[in-house]
Amino acid sequence: MKEKSKNKKMWSGRFKSTTNKLVETFTASLPFDRRLYAHDIAGNIAWARALAHAKVLTKDEADKITDGLKTVKKAIEDGRAEFSDRDEDIHMAVERLLTETIGELGGKLHTGRSRNDQVALDLRLYLRDEIKQIIEAVKALQSALTAKAKNHIDVVMPGYTHLQKAQPIRYAHYLLAYYEMLERDRLRFQDGFQRVNVMPLGSGALAGTNYPIDREALAEALGFPSVTQNSLDAVSDRDGAIEFLSAAAILMMHLSRFCEELILWSTEEFGFLELPDSYCTGSSLMPQKKNPDVPELIRAKTGRVYGHLIALLTVMKGLPLAYNKDLQEDKEAVFDTVETTKNSLTILTGLVKGMTVRREAAERAAGKGFLLATEAADYLVGKGLPFRQAHEVVGRIVRYCLDQHKDFSQISLKELQKFSSRFQKDILGYLDLEASLERKQSTGATARNRIREQIRRIEGK
After folding, report:
1. Catalytic one among 12, 226, 283, 412?
2. CA distance 337 to 312
3. 116-360 topology per CATH
4. Residue 161: which H helix or E strand, with range?
5. Could you tell me which CATH number the domain at 365-459 has?
6. Is 283 a residue of the active site?
7. CATH 1.10.40.30 region(s) of the chain?
8. Bridge-partner residues for 168, per DSSP?
9. By the 8 A CB rule, do 446 and 406 touch?
10. What's the average model confidence in pLDDT over 15-42?
């Protein structure tokens, strides 16, 4: 009889037959939602105290339940707790373990509550913790980029559009572009945190609870600044998870863009960077290979996070109110995205700290080609020529250089004057990499003082 009672479902009273074994396994979320045990137990303890405050439990009963839950938590952390698919999910597993620990009193804990508002609470508690950690990981990567930029302000490299050389920039300016992307990511997570940080507990299955639960006091106990205002919405809302996945997808897109360039810049063809050996791998066949596996994997894992976002949006798009079992599919998407995002941020931070900039290669690449063509056009504008005409003149000069197999640095003043008499001796000093960089004095530009200004602003935050 005892074994039968142990294996009995907590909702089995209405059913004539036991659950099909395959269905039991198919519907169980315990294999992945067990990671919510600490959040579930925190919610349970707060609920037990709320029931005591509402006079549904005595103080002694609430204290015994609280002590029992702490015992269950330690047993789970020590690996002594036994889980089974028959538990279905972490909520039922914790309740069963509690009842086995303190007896029938454990059965009173679920009074006035549903797994619907319980899982909504657990997910918000989990996301609240993880968003904070991801924000800190974003800030760590920003710090690594800023430190690297601060030490490489004088390094010049080509800036690209269409992956074609465009204009010279400072390497620090390039790195700080990713700082700005990450800053928007940080703010997205921070903003989304506010909507996650609203307490749904006390919503019951969908209609609220019959017991005089002080939801505001319960929210305060769990560290929530506010409570949900509609029980029907609260138990079926997964906007916080979707918004988190969306922010993570955008973040991973930024990381992927950076990784794509790390892969390119570290090739022999570009040679701007040397990635640290400890973040690369070799070939099983070719002894000379040093493969950028870390940025390649981050680039690939970005698609994985995209998939989780689309999957949850697809799950939600046709659901009637309120709770539906479909919502169980939210957790694996969220859990995997959390791990993928945190790991990508952490490992990329280490890689950035360890990578070496090859200054000579970057500056050599910036000095070749026609990166100063726009400077020549602006020079002519300064001499009174309308920009469109100046653009045409310099375009013809570029064409001439290509035909003559010359670079801008190899063309003489006499040759330039064949295209426009406005070219004077001062053009030769004008077509200088450092001078061109220092002319970029607009806010956010690549001039040395503007970059230092940005670094001071970042460090002053």
Report:
1. 283
2. 12
3. Fumarase C; Chain A, domain 2 (1.20.200)
4. strand 156-161
5. 1.10.40.30
6. yes
7. 365-459
8. 158
9. no
10. 84
> Whole-angstrom Cα distance, residue 72 to residue 220?
24
Class of domain 2-111 as given by CATH: mainly alpha
Clarify whether 162 is annotated catalytic. yes
Euclidean distance between CA atoms 417 and 359, whole angstroms: 34
**Which single residue is written with the structure tokens 């800023």?**
146
With the C-alpha atoms ordered 391, 393, 399, 401, is the resulting torsion angle positive or negative?
negative
CA distance 266 to 269: 8
Q: Start-end ranges of CATH 1.10.275.10 in the chain?
A: 2-111
Output the pTM of the full model: 0.93
User: In DSSP terms, which residues pair with 227 in a beta bridge?
Assistant: 199
Q: Give pLDDT tens digits for 202-237.
A: 999 999 999 999 999 999 999 999 999 999 999 999
Q: What does the chain come to in residues?
A: 461
Q: Model confidence over 164-183: pLDDT tens digits?
A: 999 999 999 999 999 999 99
Contacts of 160 (CB under 8 A, 6+ apart): 166
Burial label for 20, CB within 10 Å (0-12, 13-18, 19+), is: exposed
Question: Which helix (H) or strand (E) is 166 found in, with range?
Answer: strand 164-170
Q: What residue spans in the chain does CATH classification 1.20.200.10 cover?
A: 116-360
Q: Both tokens of residue 76?
A: 């789970």
User: CA 191, 193, 194, 196 torsion: positive or negative?
Assistant: positive
Among 162, 405, 421, 442, which one carries the catalytic annotation?
162
